[in-house]
Amino acid sequence: MAVTRAADGALAGARVLITGASSGIGAATATAMAARGARLVLTGRDREALEAVAARTGGRVLLADLRTDVDDLAERAGQIDVLVGNAGEGWCGPLAEMPAGAVERLVAVNLTAPIRLTRALLPGMTARGRGHLVYVASIAGAVGVREEAVYSATKAGLLAFAESLRYEVSGVHVTVVLPGVVDTPFFERRGRPYGRSRPAPLPAERVARAIVGAVERGRAETFVPGWLRLPARLAGAAPGPFRVLARRFGRP
Ligand SMILES: NC(=O)c1ccc[n+]([C@@H]2O[C@H](COP(=O)([O-])OP(=O)(O)OC[C@H]3O[C@@H](n4cnc5c(N)ncnc54)[C@H](OP(=O)(O)O)[C@@H]3O)[C@@H](O)[C@H]2O)c1
Q1: Mean per-residue pLDDT of the chain
Q2: Which domain holds residue 222?
């Protein structure tokens, strides 16, 4: 697929590292950012899928397992202007049935890895007085979801990390992305398909557009779709009534 470059903007010429670039939201974000003239570093474990994304975006592939290879990945990536911390895994079911190792895996990929990548890349951004940190969290991190306690906790942790870091950095933007349900292999991979008819899953390209818009406009947060801001705000402002509504309408 040919890539058309936008004339200008925050992403033109920027070096962007996208984790989880082999699939879903990460792959769609790679396509959208390449169209803006970004120079991409694409990472994940699936070489074939990453090379397919690289072929259409001109990106450089770096294989890495985020459970173990974060420091090495940061070193190999070199100078990075924009980090899109997108890679993530889910698990759905009663907590007591969660298999051994799954808790550690979710925490490692969804929370520890973006924190450690940030720790490795931030000094370079600060020294250059320029940078953007984007974290793909989830609405689950803002409101909590039945039978996704560990997943929701990792995303809530990511949101708190980003919110706190924002006070600490200067010259570096921080964006959190809170998608709802997105049509990607995520559900299949977590072992339980998305079983509801509403809300209907959004295409990954919609999240990718929101990420690009947030980077170009320096947005602190973006909900996809935008109406998800309402339950997030309600849960914060009126947690009691929110829980009543969530119990009534939030069943899978
Ligand atoms: N889909 C949704 O409804 C939804 C909603 C809200 C938030 N999100 C979040 O959006 C992000 C992207 O998810 P998606 O929907 O695009 O799912 P996806 O299609 O399953 O993509 C997940 C990506 O994470 C990477 N990944 C997983 N484990 C990894 C590991 N150990 N090391 C390196 N990379 C790893 C995968 O790469 P490899 O397979 O190449 O390793 C893949 O590229 C996740 O953080 C997810 O929590 C998704």
Answers
A1: 94
A2: 15-249
169 in a domain, yes or no?
A: yes
Mean pLDDT for the stretch of residues 166-177? 96
Residue indicated by tokens 């039978």: 147
Q: Is residue 4 part of a domain?
A: no
Structural domain contains residue 5:
no
Quick: pLDDT tens for 101-124: 999 999 999 999 999 999 999 999
Are the C-beta atoms of 80 and 15 separated by less than 8 Å? yes
In a domain, 98, yes or no: yes
The DSSP call for residue 228 is: G
Total domain count, the chain: 1
Q: How far is the CA of 88 from the centre of ligand 1 (A)?
A: 4
Q: Are 112 and 153 in contact (CB under 8 A)?
A: no
pLDDT at 252 over 70: no
Question: Residue 5 — very low, low, confident or very high, per pLDDT cuts 50/70/90?
Answer: very low
Q: Give the binding-site residues of ligand 1, using a 6 Å CB cut-off.
A: 20, 22-26, 44-46, 49, 65-67, 86-89, 109, 136, 138, 179, 181-182, 184-186, 189
Burial class of 248 by CB neighbour count within 10 A (0 to 12, 13 to 18, 19+):
exposed
Residue to substitute in 18, 23, 152 for testing ligand 1 pocket (most ligand atoms within 8 angstroms of CB): 23
The set of catalytic residues is: 151
Domain holding 178: CATH number? 3.40.50.720
